[in-house]
Amino acid sequence: MNYALLFLSPIFIVALLYILYPMIAAPSIGSPSSMSSVFECGIDTLGVARAPFSLKFVYLTIMFIIFDLEITIIILIPLMSNYYELLISGLMVLILTVGLLLEWKYKNLSWVN
Question: Are residues 91 and 36 in contact, defined by beta-carbon separation less than 8 angstroms?
Fold first, then answer.
């Protein structure tokens, strides 16, 4: 018997069960009109559900992720063993620092316009 088939058949059976079980055990949804209304945390909304969102929060999140990466690189510099790794990490930190200066220059870091 093929060992790959013996190994993969339980995986396929479990995957099939994961697909079919919700279709069999799930309750019926009801009318489609009830699905079109907004429902959050059990409370009906009073106003418009689609309020405008400031892009400053998105910029802040992206900058947090980028500088979290930069801090990780800076922490790992003592563990780097050769010149090539130091050069690449230094170049990356330099590029991120230039990006920060450009964000500062174009006033994307200020919360008040």
Answer: no
Distance between terminal CA atoms of the chain? 71
Distance CA 66, CA 62 (A): 6
* Residue 99: exposure state from Cβ atoms within 10 A (0-12, 13-18, ≥19): middle
Q: Which residue has the tokens 């190994």?
A: 7
For the segment 26-48, what is each residue's pLDDT rounded down to a tens digit?
776 665 555 566 556 666 666 66
Averaged confidence pLDDT in the chain: 78
- Tell me if residue 40 falls in helix, strand or coil: strand
Which residues 6+ apart lie within 8 Å of 92 measured at CB? Answer: 70, 73
